[in-house]
Amino acid sequence: MNTRRITTGITILFIGVVLLLSQLNTISFNWVGIFRYWPLFIVLAGIRMLVPKDQQIGQFVAIGSTVVILGFLTYIGLSTPKEPLLTELLKSKTLGVRNTDDPNDKTNYSTEKLTVPLNDKIHSATLNLDLGATSLRNDSSTTSEIFTAFNSSKEYLLGVTVHDDSADKLDINLKGKFKNKDFNSKNNNTYIALNPNILWSLNFDVGAIDANLDLSPYKIETLDIDAGATSLKLKLGQPQTLTKISMDAGASSIEISIPKNAACRITSDNALSSTDYEGDFLKSEGEVKSTNYDTAAQKFDFDINGGIASIKIRRY
User: Label partner for 168 (CA 20 to 30 A): which of 127, 176, 208, 229?
Assistant: First the structure.
């Protein structure tokens, strides 16, 4: 009996079966989750070296330990919630990020909660997010302020600047930077809250962030995403008369959820991006649009460009 050949065959068979079932969407397997247990393969190699190859008991021990370890990894892969690779990296204790200060940046940074006070004259606002190496989440809607932001880590600083675009419109800039030269990104969560009575234009200029935002309570006029290696998961409410969404994404994973019956059109000129969308659509050269797009009074327009990205338009 060739023990090495049998154990190698079992391992290859395990990987092949899991990959096949994952491709068929029969199972959801978290490969990233099992990587942290890689020392088990060293243990397995040590067992193979120690057990006598010419005795039946040694062969059974080697094969049995292979089956047990692969069974354990199968349990971990199936039971651990699957998350984007970027999310796993941001949770890592060992991820260090270099801070680069801009000498021309006049923003005042703080570890305290930042607020933009309510002003009854303001009916619309532009929010520019310039963040990196952080997880971005909702705080909650606020009606006592126009905008609030805070970070859960004392090592990550936030700064906000506000300019008047006009008598009834504000331009809000939120920036983040690291307090120290070397920064541990674990537990670095940025929370924002918007006023639902304001008409918003959102500009995401982000790199290496994990964003999971429920924007459905807000009135969104435009959404502009310029993202690097980023994982974005956004939920939008009903569109305005025309809500424009532009995406210029690098190696990113973007998932946007829109209401079930919302009209939308998707245009894309990037063959390297994978775009997946739900609902009834009419396809034509360079674009797809929902069957109710031409007659709808309110609609989304998606314009997708960028690098190698996975983009999903979901319905809820």
Answer: 176
In sign, the C-alpha dihedral spanning 116, 189, 29, 13 is positive
Residue 147, classed as helix, strand or coil, is strand
Q: CA-to-CA distance for 135 and 187, rounded, in angstroms?
A: 8
- How many angstroms separate the first and last alpha carbons of the chain? 56
Residue 81 has a CB neighbour count (10 Å cut-off) of 7
How many degrees, rounded to 5, is the angle at CA 7 between CA 6 and CA 13? 90
Residue 273: what pLDDT?
58
Closest CA to 70 of 12, 5, 1: 12
Residue 152 to residues 19, 156, 160, 312: CA-CA distances in angstroms? 38, 8, 16, 29
Packing angle of the helix pair 56-79, 3-23 (nearest 10 deg): 20
Query: CA-CA distance, 27 to 15, in Å (whole number)?
Result: 13
In eight-state DSSP terms, residue 12 is H
- Tell me the C-alpha distance between 265 and 79, whole Å: 37
* 16: pLDDT strictly greater than 80: yes
Annotated domain spans of the chain: 3-82, 96-315
Q: Which of 94-103, 167-176, 231-240, 243-252 has the lowest mean pLDDT?
A: 94-103
Q: What is the pLDDT of residue 96?
A: 41
Please name every residue paired with 254 in a beta bridge, in sequence order, or none if there are none: 232, 311
Closest CA to 239 of 268, 264, 214, 270: 264
The predicted model scores a pTM of 0.68
Structural element, H or E, at residue 5: helix 3-23
Q: Are 184 and 96 in contact (CB under 8 A)?
A: yes
62-68, Cβ contacts within 8 angstroms, sequence gap of 24 or more: 62/3, 62/7, 63/3, 63/6, 63/7, 63/10, 66/7, 66/10, 66/11, 67/10
Q: Are the C-beta atoms of 281 and 302 separated by less than 8 Å?
A: no
